[in-house]
Amino acid sequence: MDEDSDAFDPSNLPEIDPAGGLDDLLIFGGPETRRRFLQQRAGASAAVTLGPALMGIGTAQAAEAPATPAGGAPAGMASVQFKINGKAHALELDPRVTLLDALRERLNLTGSKKGCDHGQCGACTVLVNGRRINSCLSLAVTHEGDEITTIEGLAKGDELHPVQAAFIEHDGFQCGYCTPGQICSAVALLKEGHAKTDADIREWMSGNLCRCGAYPNIVAAIREAQAKQGGAKGA
Ligand code: FES
Ligand code: FES
Prior knowledge:
The chain is α+β, with helices and mostly antiparallel strands and about 240 residues long.
C-alpha cells in the first residue's frame, strides 16, 4: 500500500459548507473537537460565550422552563417591585430586561423613547429616586423598591409640570422624539442646581441629543422654568 496515500487522502477531508456557513473544521479544527467543546461548555457558560441571541435562550428557556416553584418567580425569571409615577408595580421579568423595555413593553409607558439603546442619546431618560438615568442602560430588576418617574408622571392631572409648559411656550422641540428625555433631564437639572448660566445648561444637558437641533429653544425653556420656580430647585 502507498504510504503517502495513507498519510493524506484528500477525499477523506470533511466537506466545507459551500454556502459559507460556520464550518466545523474551520472554526474548531474538526467536528469531533467541536462536539467536545460544546459538551464542555454546555449550559450557562456556552450562553455567555456565544451570546444569548445566538443561543436563542430567550425563547428556548421560556419553552423549557419548569412550572413556577411554590412562592417564587418562574425559573429563569426574577421578581421586582417598584413604584412608577406613584403607583406600585410588581413584575416578573427576565433579569436581562432593561428598565426602558419594562416600562415600554410591560407597563405600556411609551413616553420614554428608545433612540440608540446604548446610553448615547438620552431619549430614554427617566428619574429614579429623583436622579436622572438612561433607562436603556439599567436592568429593571436592579430597581427593587425604587421610585421611578417617567414623562407620564410629571404633570399633576391637567396641570403641566413647569418644565413641560416652558417647552411648549418656547417651542423646545420639533419632531418631539427626544422631548420626554429632554424634559425629564431638565427637571433633574433644575433640582441639582447646576443651571446657573446658559453654558451650564448646555453642559449639563449634553447627554440629551436632539437631531432636530432645537437646542436654543430647549435652553430658553429651561431658563424660563427656572425663573418661574424663582431659581429654586424644582421638583
Ligand atoms: S435610548 Fe437610552 S441613551 Fe439612547
Ligand atoms: S425635537 Fe426632534 S430630536 Fe429633538
